[in-house]
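seq/struct pair 1
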Amino acid sequence: MLVCPGSMRDRLGVDILSDVVTVMRTGRPVSARVEWHSPWTQRFAEVPGAAGFQVVLQGTCRIMGPAPIHLGVGDVVFLPHATDHVLANGDSATTVTLCGAYEVDPGRVHPLLLSLPERIHLPARLGRHPELRAAVDLLSAELENPRVGSDAVVPALLEALLLYILRAYFEEQPPEGWAAALRDQRITAALQAIHNEPGRQWTVASLAARAGMSRAPFARTFKELIGQPPLTYLTWWRMTTAGRLLRDTDMSLSAIATKVGYTSEFAFAHAFKRETAQAPGRFRSTVE
């Protein structure tokens, strides 16, 4: 096996956006390629605990509402909270769309996702977001012509598509909130420290040192951009990490407690129940 001296992950730390997708996703994403013939209208009901998307592959259509959005080939609409919406035909006889949904843990939705608007429209523009366009093309091809391995390829492409959608959105946003945080190397350094070592006994001062800032300006800037004080976010991330380990692994409670920074199983169980309203053992039994 080829071993590289110092992985890219070691040098760059944790990718915050990838972590957000990892913690928010549960179950298996689904998608479908749909062909519509004019005239047509389709209502998509709200799906609690989900995020969804619509992509126009051929023709035109509209997403209805107080301010209808006209969609053309290559346009992407992301619905972070899977709110109900209506699609209707545009000025083409045939429209082909790619739609999909991701299951989201409603109890542990990352604050980055909560900060997103009800609808995100990413219009197709020549030369913009080529990775997003490539993921759409690959996913469409797999759904139109399933082949050996499609059962593994499609979920992987859906995961990539979600990351590309979020990346494209944050790249185009004015520097406010999480959009600014992801571009601010100082705050990103502190977030990476929390995500990479949730079990470390971080303080505001030590996180500020990671950010290369003095304590008070760091705490103020972190709260302005992230929406929570540094140690509140640290606790949230610890409990979210613990929940994922309880759900996806057979690690013992004491091992998980150590992993997320608690010196005893009792202290961890108390903190976890305070944060989630469930004891760790009960939480694990409900997801098995």
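seq/struct pair 2
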Amino acid sequence: MNLEETDMSLIYYSDHCSRIDFVHRILGIFNKQLDNTKRIFIKPNIVSSEPYPTTTHPELLDALLYSLSEKEVIVGDAPAVDAGRSDKVLMNTPLREVCENHKVSLVNLYSKPTKTVKSRRGYKIKVSTVPFSCDFVISVPVLKAHNMCGLSGALKNQFGYLSRTDRILMHTKLKDIHKGIAEVNVAIPTNLFIIDAIQTMVKAQEHRHGGSACELGVMMAGTDPVSLDCLGLDLLSKLELGIAAKRASMKYIDYASEYSVGSKDYRIKKIL
């Protein structure tokens, strides 16, 4: 990784900032883009009823909503298909209280309309229409291992936009999950990713699937989900030695790069 190459994707990185400080610094960097927006969609990582680090930390969402209080903001996600009733999961998540405190809607994407998107590669997916109603999208995933995809980070967080049927078909391997992850990132572009890796999960993405929480102490942000996942994989491999060996099976990173979602090459700018 050559930090002098200016044509590489830029990743903002901190291994000492608090979540609140990091969010304020990053939104300050993107202040000009945000000034020109009216409606913002925030996509957290609400997998199940498990708390952080399975799910986005409430402090991170609170910092975002506080900073964006003058904007119209919608928060939304659709939990894992095997996590139980989605409305119950969203009702019980601590992120709901955060949204209510800021008078912001927490939307169950399963309950909203979808539309079919067909790529030039002929791959069809059904995705939520909610993000299309906004002019700026912020994704706030947690960096984790994933027992099926290898890694859950920037690219995989967009999986929550897919219809329940598509998600079932991909998890049962009747549709290609790796192409699905890449395609949904093409279909619904994200303007900013803020990734929480202060704590992470190794072995799997949830405790109920065998995951274990570990300290990593890092926050990352950027506009390129491919480069963010490549850095995330490097960081996670320090905690889980076997994950680097799974890199070849993480085809969605290669697909996303081929589909021009982002670049595998990156440079890091530390946030002090």
